[in-house]
Amino acid sequence: MTERSPHRRGPLPAVDIPALTDPARLRALAETGLDAEPDEAFDRFARLVSDLLEVPVALVSLVTGERQFFPGAVGLPEPWAARRQTPLSHSFCQHVVDIEIPMVLPDARLYPRVWNNLAIAELGVVAYAGMPLTDLDGRVLGSLCAIDSKPRAWTADQLRTLADLAAACSSELRLRIALDGAEEARRRAEEAHERLKLLSALSETLTGTLDVATAVDRLTAAVVPLLADWALVTLVDRAGAPRRVTALHRDPGRAAQVDRFAELMTTGLGPQSITRTVLRTGQPVLGSAATLDDVRRATTDPEMVSLADRLGFASHLSVPVPAPGRRAVVGCVTLINAPGRRPFDDSDLHIALEIGRRAGQALGNSWMYDEQRHVAEVLQHSMLPVLPESPRVELAARYQPVADRVEVGGDWYDAFVQPDGDLVVAIGDVAGHDIEAAATMGQLRNLVRGNAFGRTDPVDELMTRLDRAISGLRIPAAATATLARLRPRAAGGLTVSWCNAGHPPPLLVDAEGVVRVLGGRREPLLGFARPIARSSQETILAAGDTLLLYTDGLIERRDRSIDEGLAELLSRLSGAGPLPLAELCDLLLTSSDRREDDVALLAVRAR
User: Fold this and answer.
1) Do domains 18-179 and 212-374 have the same CATH topology?
2) What is the number of other CB atoms lying within 10 angstroms of the CB of residue 354?
3) Where does the GAF domain lie (predicted)?
4) Rounded to whole angstroms, how far apart are CA atoms 529 and 455?
5) Torsions phi, psi of 264, nearest 5?
6) What are 338-352's pLDDT values in tens digits?
7) Beta strands of 409-503 (E only): which ranges?
């Protein structure tokens, strides 16, 4: 710095002291945990200096890049005594940090380095003696200083006493730094333990569902607030562009804002956004120190900047979600911290990369499951018939696979009109949940049609012929089935005759909603024994009455018998009263949340 002549007065230019902004020194200052507030230990040092050196003002002064503050102070005039800090324009101690040795001034007004310092006029600093306060690495954090408002010749004994007290004060600072380091180490150890627990549980958490939306929701819940204040999970479309973004903030009151930010992520990202960069390159991006300018450069929508400001944006970390077994990126996990929380570092990057990898495996399994399930459902529904139109009856059918299984099954139903106008309906269930079961189901349904169409034989004879066909053609079927014929009556309504081969009994719901089980002899399964002579039952279906055929998935569960399941079904139907046919079918399918098997349902209502 260029010093001024004693004959030139006026404000000095800002002093350029590189040490003041040294990151390591500032980090050590922060680790003391001290600020512009009284601290009894350092106030004691200030009192000792004042008493032993007989000075009106004594300070423990720590210096940052913008100010000096006094955790220990005696004799400061107001308003500085209450503030416990001053700007650097009032600081002598910054020069101790600069020169790294004691600064002793009998009359500061005579020294060009400080003669225009505002501390002389506003704090009454004339005589000054400052001893460096250092950390374990020798970095000068500030000074222990004695101040008088009049010129003073400092004695050797006074300076030796001040130096001894400064050494003790430095030890106290080092102890504070060490305690902060120990506390930080403890926090880091606990954090590392929690993160290991997160990783050990994450795979199970993510693989516990095959639904993509659920998996992503679980992922965000796992990382917020443990790893971040808020998080975004971006999934891409086939072109690699953001298709869907899920977000979570640690503050439930911010849910609407973070959801809006996620919505804008699909439309408002510019080509240089971090998310697009990660999706394009497959490389992570760590922003230990971030500002809203980072958001402003990344978006084409100004609303995202204001939202980021409200949500808190001071540090960010984005990692790819790789597709398992392929060199492709299917998504991006972004972690964001607000001001006041530790910024992300390399340790966070390592765990985030592992989270991204595990998320990729889970999402890959979910997508594979969705594809397989779609194929299975298409195959299954392709085997189900289009219900015929009939002036005498109303027909409705439902097929519902188990929600967490991709296998095709053996459940089926059928309905067709005979040349003479009779209606033939059937329902069945081939054992198994695989392609073989579905193939057998298809053969069996076709056999029923081929065996019954155009024939006027009673249903028991048709079922007997079906047994013989299964045996003669060596179809590996172990199946249940109910076959029924509905024939118009001259007096009105329909005559229903049916034959049951090991299947749950049909139900009749009359026009008033009263339910009756159509029992009778329950005969052996199809294809399970040598062909036998089958028998049939008969009842009347009046106008408004409904015949219900269903598979055992509607009533069967591992924790109860089929009889108990049937009793529960009858109770639900009896309590429902008369319902439109479609509503009746939907009621039966939605009344249980613990279904363990596929369900086929066929309802026939007489007009």
Assistant:
1) yes
2) 15
3) 37-183, 211-373
4) 25
5) -70, -20
6) 998 989 999 899 889
7) 411-417, 423-430, 479-488, 494-501
CATH level 3 topology of 212-374? Beta-Lactamase (3.30.450)
φ/ψ bin of 65: left (φ > 0), alpha (ψ from -120 to 50), beta (otherwise): alpha
Domain ranges of the chain: 18-179, 212-374, 384-606
Kind of pairing, strands 230-236 and 140-148?
A: unpaired
- DSSP H stretches of helix in 54-155: 80-83, 93-99, 118-122
- DSSP designation for 96: H
Q: Domain 18-179: which topology?
A: Beta-Lactamase (3.30.450)
d(CA 369, CA 208): 13
pLDDT value at residue 568: 87
The DSSP 8-state label assigned to residue 543 in this structure reads T
- The span from the CA of 551 to the CA of 399, in Å, is 10
DSSP letter string, 231-299:
EEEEEE-TTSSEEEEEEEESSGGGHHHHHHHHHHHTTSB-TT-HHHHHHHH---EEESS--HHHHHHHB
Confidence band (pLDDT; 50, 70, 90) for 436? low
Per-residue pLDDT tens over the stretch 174-229: 999 988 877 777 777 676 667 666 666 676 666 666 677 888 888 898 889 988 99
CATH superfamily entry for domain 384-606: PPM-type phosphatase domain (3.60.40.10)
pTM recorded for the entire structure:
0.47
